[in-house]
Amino acid sequence: MAVSLPEVSRGKVNRLSAKLQDPSLEARFLADRHETDLRRIRTVALLAIPVSAIFAALDWMVISENLGMALAIRFCMALSGPTLIYAMSYVGFFSRRFDLLGWIVVGFLAASYFVLIAVSDAPEAYLSGYIIILMFLYFLFPASYLASIAIGVVCTVAFAAGIPMARDIETGQLLTIYSQYAVTLLAGGFTAYQVNILRRHAFLDGLQIDEQKRQYFELLTRILPESIVRRIENGERQIADNVPEAVVLFADVVGFTEMAARNTPEDVVRVLNGLFEEFDDCVSAHRLEKIKTIGDAYMVAGSVPEASPDSLAQAADLAMDMLDIAARHAGPDRRPISIRIGFHTGSLLAGVIGKKRFGYDLWGDTVNLASRLQGSAASGTIHVSEAVRAKLESRYEFKPLGTVSLKGMGEVPTWQLTGRHGASG
User: What sign results for the dihedral spanned by CA atoms 139, 140, 141, 143?
Assistant: First the structure.
C-alpha cells in the first residue's frame, strides 16, 4: 500500500510515548517488525541457556550454603525461563503481545533470581547481577517504551524491597546497590526510548524511500514499457531485442499543419492533447504499447516488448476505435478532426536508446512500411499491408486498393480495413 510523503514526516512520532501518532502507521510499523522481533526473542532465549550454564559454574565456586537449592533454581532459570520464552513466542496470543510477554518473562526471571539469593549464601555482589535482567529488558526485549519503563520500575521496586528481608546487609552497601539499580533504570529507559524513536524514524524513512521508488517507477513507466523498466532495474545495461513478429501502427491528423497555422499554440496543444489522451486510454484498453508521438503522429506497437498472440487483431480494433474517437473531436476553429492510419506486421528490432530523454524505439522494414502506409492513406481510412490482410481476412473486411507506389518500397499491394465481418453499420 502506497503512503504519501506527508504521511511519513518525522513529526508523526509522539515524543512522549515514542509511538507513531497515526494508529494505522503504528500498526504497519509493528507488523513490519513483528517477524524480526520474534526471531530476536527466540535467539535470546536460546543464548540464555549457555549463559545460565556459565553462571551456574560460578554458583558452584562461590556458594556453599544450600548449593543444591541454588543450582536447582539456576537450572530452572536456565531451562524453564528460555523454554517458556521460546514456547510462548509461538503462541498467537503472546506472539502479538510483546508487552504482556515482557511482564511474564521479566517477572519470572526477577522472582527466580530473588529466590536464588534468598536461599543461598551467594556473595552480596550477586545482588548487582539483577542488572543483567534489566539489560535484557531494555536492550534485547522488543517491548514498547512505556511498557519497558513500567516493567523495569515495578520489578526493580519489588526486588529491591525484598533485599532487606532476605539479607542482613549494611545500609551503605544497600544504598550502593539501589543506586546501581536506579542508574540502570534511567540509562536503560533512556536507551529504550531512543531505540523506539530511531526504529520508527527508520521505518518512516523506509516508507519515504519506497514512495520515492514508486514515484520513480511510475514516471519511468510513462516513458518506457513496464517490463523494460523492470529489466533495467534488474541490471540490464543494454536493452535490445530482435522481435520476429510484431505489429506497428501509425496515425496522424490530416491537415494538422494548416490547423496549427490558423490557431494559437495553446489551442492547438489543448486539442491535440485531448485527442492523444483518449488514444492513450484506448491503447491501454487493447493491451497494446504506445511507443511515442512525433508532432501530430501517434505510434503504437503490439507484441513488443512482450509477445501477444492476438496483437494484430487488437491493432485492427484499435485503429477502428481511433477513427471513432477522432470523429468526436473538433479543432480550435470547430472544424472536424480527421486522422489517417496505417499498420503492418512483421519482424523488427526494439530497444532503449539515449542517455538523456531516452526512449524505447523500433527499427526495421516493418516500421518503415507502416509509416509509408499511414502517409499514403486517405483521410478517415485505415491503410494496411497484404500481410495484415492475409492474417485477418477471416475476421475483418478489407477493400482492395491495388498496388500503391510507396517511397523506398516500390509497388506494394495494399488494402483498406473497413470493419469486422458481420458488423452492422
Answer: positive
Distance separating alpha carbons of residues 342 and 300, to the nearest angstrom = 11
Give bridge partners of residue 19 from the DSSP assignment. 14
- For residue 133, the Cα-to-chain-centroid distance in whole angstroms is 38
Q: First vs last Cα of the chain: how many Å apart? A: 46
Specify the DSSP class assigned to residue 305. S
DSSP string, 21-81: SSHHHHHHHHHHHHHHHHHHHHHHHHHHHHHHHHHHHHHHHH--TTHHHHHHHHHIIIIIH
DSSP result, 227-277? HHHHHHHTT-S--EEEEEEEEEEEEEETTHHHHHHHS-HHHHHHHHHHHHH
Contact 266, 259 (CB under 8 A): no
404 grid coordinates: 500503391
Across residues 175-204, what is the average pLDDT?
90
- Give the three cell numbers for residue 377: 492513406
- At 86-97, the pLDDT tens digits run 777 787 777 678
Give the CA-trace dihedral at 108, 176, 193, 199, to 10 degrees: -70
Asked if 387 and 279 touch (Cβ cutoff 8 Å), the reply is no
Average pLDDT on 349-357 reads 87
In the block, which residue shows the cell 496543444?
269
pLDDT in tens, 230-254: 888 888 888 899 999 999 999 999 9
pLDDT tier, 62 (very low <50, low <70, confident <90, very high otherwise): low
Beta bridge partners of 16: none
Q: In whole angstroms, what is the distance from residue 288 CA to residue 22 CA?
A: 41
Other residues' Cβ atoms within 10 Å of the Cβ of residue 386: 15
- Per-residue model confidence as pLDDT tens digits over 359-405: 899 999 999 999 999 999 999 999 999 999 999 999 999 999 988 88
Ordered DSSP codes for 154-192: HHHHHHHHHHHHH----HHHHHHHHHHHHHHHHHHHHHH
Residue pair 132/159 in contact by the 8 Å Cβ criterion:
no
Radius of gyration of the chain (CA): 38
For residues 240 and 348, the answer to whether their CB atoms sit within 8 Å is no
Residue 99 pLDDT level (bands cut at 50, 70, 90): confident
CA–CA distance, 45 with 313 (Å, rounded to integer): 64
